[in-house]
Amino acid sequence: MANSRSGETVTERIVRVLETFDADRTVQTTAEIGRRARLPSSTAHRVVAGLVECGLLERDEEQRVRLGMRLWELALRGSHALRLRQAALPFMERVQARVREHTQLAVLENGETLFVERLSHPHAGANITRIAGRLPLHASSSGLVLLAHGPEELRERVLAGPLEAVSPKTVTDPALLRRVLAGVRRDGVVVAPGTVEAVSTGVAVPVREGRGRVVAALSVVLPRSTPTGPAAEALRSAAAGISAALGARRP
Amino acid sequence: MANSRSGETVTERIVRVLETFDADRTVQTTAEIGRRARLPSSTAHRVVAGLVECGLLERDEEQRVRLGMRLWELALRGSHALRLRQAALPFMERVQARVREHTQLAVLENGETLFVERLSHPHAGANITRIAGRLPLHASSSGLVLLAHGPEELRERVLAGPLEAVSPKTVTDPALLRRVLAGVRRDGVVVAPGTVEAVSTGVAVPVREGRGRVVAALSVVLPRSTPTGPAAEALRSAAAGISAALGARRP
To answer: So what's the pLDDT on residue B86?
Structure first.
């Protein structure tokens, strides 16, 4: 891979440019991209022009830049995330029809919880997660499921800290977190009141693929006052359905 | 952008590698990728290694390669496609609850119909479209909506042909296609029996953003024998809802 004088590859610079886009910054000038990616102006212009040329970025009428549909297409059409999400969606809809709150699907990505799907009821309560958004593993109910069933080495690294408090109720004590994770593996469900937002309780269950490996966490976010039993039951039933769907040859 | 001896940029080679993945090839060896991308073996290994390094590709236990969750995340979190799709999903669910067949959302991408969302009823009939899949503009009901409301220059280019027949009922006569497109603009709905698959009828309506520009097509795929009136009505109502949702400041 061609290296710049800084030793950084073109691929790394492309990733840095793409990273400057998020839900609050879907359109930017090349100068803004360069500043946020900490790239020299000439480099930013060259990388952006190359990405526009290939359709991975698009320019609008005012020459501002946004992520291209081509990037979206390349990222999705051959992706495991899409397969998982397509298998899960019908079951997530059933959960949502019963629970009428936020229903979410999350995976483990580079040591964090990455949300790959979210259905929201129009009258559902507070919830800070977004599709393609992240949270630390120890904070949310989904993350606790993924951490409990994730690689031993990752679990020990997270337990070694630091354990950031996302809310005053986030579990930040390593010994307590270790007991919580053992409980998750034993009970097959996490109930996490207030660990992300004080007003909400997360309820999450593991989603297993054919051979039993946990590949995702399925969760709902309820107001703190709502009983969690019916949601846990709906999630368990949905997770079983998703596992069966993933076991079939085609999603 | 660093150029290879062939004059191709690193960005172009990255796109060629990503293009080798699709719904039927989610996992490949580097040798397979190189062959499909028509890249020399050493180049393929270098490009793949760079993409794995940045998380855009991932290796499994057998050293085979698949699209990385990081690519999925970068492509989605700042994307217009996600915003459109999140605005549309609740309304698509209502359509599907009423029509109980395939409900789809498509956009115009580089002169083709790109499907960005699809909901399928368990007992729905035949439908060849896939999320992140494409069809020629003149073939499907969604494409006819996008073509009718797309740039004049694109419409003339498509009308100049060649007009490929996806099924025996695809409109391939330029004069007839021109009349069909005028009808789409006049009626605000397309009913396309058998133009993609002989057994199915596509029904599609335009989705407009705040200022009235058509940004997507919303469609259902029905068995040929099903009356199209109720579906057209459900689609019109949903398209109005999506337009209102897109007009709001945040999806």
So the answer is: 83
Task: Provide ipTM, 2 decimals.
Answer: 0.77
> How many CB pairs below 8 Å do chains A and B form together?
178
**Cα–Cα distance between B66 and A244 in angstroms, integer?**
23
The pLDDT value recorded for residue A24 is 82
d(CA A203, CA A222): 8
Written as one string, the DSSP assignment of A132-147 is T-EEETTTSHHHHHHH
The predicted structure's pLDDT at residue A95: 93
Q: Letter for the amino acid at A223?
A: P
Walk me through the domains of chain B, giving residue ranges and CATH numbers: 10-75 (1.10.10.10), 80-245 (3.30.450.40)
State residue B57's pLDDT score: 95
In angstroms, the separation between the Cα of residue A149 and the nearest Cα of chain B is 18
Tokens (6 digits) for B44: 């393929």
User: What pLDDT shows up at residue A36?
Assistant: 95
Instruction: Check the CA dihedral A225-A228-A229-A235 and report its sign.
Output: positive
A11, A73, A114: residue with CB nearest B132: A73
CB contact under 8 A, A1 and B71: no
Q: How far is A176 from chain B (nearest CA, A)?
A: 30
**Residue B71 is nearest to which of A47, A75, A133, comparing CB atoms?**
A75
Between positions 179 and 218 of B, the ones with CB within 8 A of A are: none
Q: How many residues does chain A have?
A: 251
Closest to A206 (Cα-Cα) out of A197, A198, A215, A194: A215
Query: Residue A9, Cβ neighbours under 10 Å: how many?
Result: 21
A-interface mutation test, from B45, B65, B79, B82, most A Cβ less than 10 A away: B79
Q: Which residues of A touch B78 (CB under 8 A)?
A: 21-23, 25-26, 66-67
Low-confidence stretches of chain A (pLDDT < 50) are 1, 249-251
Query: Which stretches of chain B score pLDDT less than 70?
Result: 1-7, 121-128, 248-251
SS3 B203: strand
CB atoms within 10 A of CB B223: 12
Letter string b/e over residues A40-61, b meaning 16 or more CB atoms within 10 A of that residue's CB: eeebbebbbbbbbebbbbbeee
